[in-house]
Amino acid sequence: MTTAVALHPTAAQAAPPSDVKPVRVVILVDESGSLKDQDVTRERAAAQLIALSELSEQSQVAVVGFGSSNGPGQSAVDIVCPLTGVQTAQDRESLSRCVEKLRLRTAEEGNDTDHAAALEQALDIMGRPDDQQRAKIVFLLTDGVLDVRNSPQYGADAQARNANAQAQITRSLADAERGQVQIWPLGFGAADKSALDAFAAGGWVQPCGDQQTSTPKARVVATSADVERSLLEAFAYARCAGIEKSVTDSLDAGATVDLNVNIPIIATDGSIVVVKRDKRIQVTYFDPEGTQVPKQGELKESTFQAAGEAGPVESLRIRNPLPGQWRIRLESPPGVSRQEVSATVVWQGALRASISLSNPRPRPGEQVNVRLRLQTRTGTITDPAALEGLRFSARMSGEGFQEVPVELGDTGEGADRARSDGEYSGQIVIPATATGALSFVGKVSGPGVAGDERPYATRIAGPADRLRAQVELGSATVEPGGTLAGTVRVTNEAEPVQLGLRLVDVPGTVGLSAQQVQAPTGSSEQGFELRVSADAGEGTVSGVLQVLDPAGQVVAEEFVDVDVRPPTPLWQRALQALLILLAILAVALPFLLARRRARRRAADPSELTLHLFDRPGEPYISRLQAPLGEGPEFMFEVSDGRLVRTYGTGYAVRRGQGRTVLVRDPSGRELDPLLPGQPIALPNGMYLGVDDGRARGGGAEQPAYGSAEPYRSRTHRPMPGDDLL
Predict the structure, then answer these.
(1) Are strands 219-221 and 181-188 parallel, antiparallel or unpaired?
(2) Are 87 and 29 within 8 A, CB to CB?
(3) How many CB atoms lie within 10 A of CB 438?
(4) Which of 301, 432, 279 is nearest to 366 (CA)?
(5) DSSP 3-state assignment of 86?
(6) Contact, 428 vs 406, CB < 8 A?
(7) Do 258 and 327 meet the contact criterion of CB atoms below 8 Å apart?
(8) How far, in Å, are 3, 358, 420, 423 from residue 411 at the CA level?
(9) Phi, psi (degrees; rounded to nearest 5) at 233
(10) CB atoms < 10 A from the CB of 537, how many?
(11) At what angle do helices 193-202 and 115-126 cross, to 10 degrees?
(12) Which of 13, 103, 214, 379 has its Cβ near the most Cβ atoms within 10 Å?
């Protein structure tokens, strides 16, 4: 589908909600004698699929059975369902029931195949007054070829009757093309493919612009068992909708089965169509959040309407569906034979294009940035995956020059401000010959996209236009009741004026702090605020902010992007802070314990051995090894020429930097640093030396004093905190 949307510099309010376009559908169903009972059953189900899956409440559906008129009292056509709206569930239920009147004709009823009469009846229905300008679609279901040799209304010569009927078909197809009536033939069994191709090509063939899938074409399936999916697919393409992959499974008596289907993010309207065969099978629907949705009524921002529950086919029509994977649960009661069940999603995106210009009042020769993005009823689409497959472009036209295309992209290059943000931008230079009126039209095309075309008009800036403005308004997350600050930068070469501010396509929950800003002579900056009401719901608010000159002309505009989120509850913020703290501790604790362990090992004096001398160079007279695991220092005293371990009094010994050992005398005075092999004098005239077992790396070196026996380390014990590392 192609969406052409024009800019609105003069629109002061939000555009009306986008809706999928309604259709008028006529389903022609073969009732000829070449069919079997199961074929008619499949045809009924296929017709019900169309009647129940239609997306617009303003659409209309008629079902016509056809055979032939071979004698008095016979009619080639049988209107089993007159043209009926599908606005309510009761309307759709009525269509589902009347389809059951399709039957296999007997010879007494006229059971040949009169395609000419069927097509003429369809065009008669299509020609009735229509105040909604509905798209016109005819579906032709048949298993045979044109055969009216027994129908006298086509001439007295039985051999010429088929040719006469074919000539009537040719005239009807020409009428269909003029009346923009699509014809989608679906044949099965022995249907004549070439004849069906002529039906498809003879009517209107451009219902959705340049979308190839939407061009009417004939389909021929092997058996009637393939009719349902093929017709539903043709229906989706014919009304410019999208269709997801069908999911099929078997359902045993007394069993339950779940079918999972997807609704894309750009879908604003959808129908989940379920073929269950037996009306006793119960169907329940669950949204992507796991919530069971009602079959009638509203939930969250969605509206639901189910129909066909009492028949072999049912559907759930959803307005504003939650995107993602839906779960359909089917439950079969005991006693029901094993059934093949299936589910399919038909959807459409009723989207509104929003366009912004970097300079809405350009001069000839100036470069203008054109920006385009898509909005659903509930917000702007920014997900690149959701926009994949859509094509964005624009065109510019005006007085004094021919129409010029504008190529748009979301590459983050040139005029595009960021890559893959859902905003498609392009640059164009205003022709030097432009003299007056100027217009831009944005175009979005892609499967399942529906929209409208709205006029936009601006003008080239003239000599009197001596004011320029620019809006700065970034995207932000705002709590209900909060504000978002913006700036209007103005260059005014004329007298001071007041400029107006207005919001376009922005819901009423967001307003402006002021409707006007001052524009003094020269360059200036004026601040304003977007204010989100306290009762605003959660979600994205989008639209356009415009700056107007005193004449009401747009001189600057910018997109609005506000993500409204309620404040985080205090308990949740406290929990988040606690989790952050725990995460920091989880990372830091091993490091802190390792440092603590390293410091303790570095300070541990356990491998120090003190030696007492009368004079340096003489053998020691006493020896004391540092105690094990009693802290970073130990104490001793010299008594009767011996080193004696003490607690709380005497000399204090601890490790210093490198191999240095620090000694403090009983008065608290620090003595000279002590190194292995370099004794120091004590206040009592004796000398103190030290051996350090750690410095010898496990006994590889000779001790400075005492025996040459290898030193046995006593520090292999576990240190505090080792079990946490």
Answers:
(1) parallel
(2) no
(3) 26
(4) 432
(5) coil
(6) yes
(7) yes
(8) 21, 18, 7, 9
(9) -65, -45
(10) 13
(11) 20
(12) 214
The identity of residue 472, as a single letter, is E
Rounded distance, CA 635 to CA 176, Å?
A: 113
User: Which two structure tokens, joined as six digits, stand for 117?
Assistant: 């009469």
Q: How many CB atoms lie within 10 A of CB 434?
A: 21
Nearest alpha-carbon partner for 69 in 111, 13, 105: 111
Tokens at 482, concatenated: 């909060």
Written as six digits, the tokens of 174 are: 């020409």
| CA distance to 69, 82, 664, per residue, from 32 (Å) | 11, 20, 118
Count CB-CB contacts under 10 A for residue 420: 14
Q: Distance of alpha carbon 169 from its chain centroid, rounded?
A: 47
**Highest mean pLDDT pick, 201-210, 346-355, 517-526, 601-610:** 517-526
Cβ pair 468, 549 in contact under 8 A: no
**Residue labelled with tokens 């006593």:** 714
Q: Quick one: angle between helices 161-178 and 115-126, nearest 10?
A: 20
Q: Which two tokens stand for residue 624?
A: 């004391």
- Give residue 16's pLDDT band: very low, low, confident or very high (50, 70, 90): very low
Question: Does pTM surpass 0.85?
Answer: no
Q: Are 271 and 21 in contact (CB under 8 A)?
A: no
What would the two tokens of residue 588 be?
Answer: 């830091």
The CA-atom distances, in angstroms, between 532 and each of 126, 404, 482, 536 are 49, 40, 6, 7
213 pLDDT more than 90: no
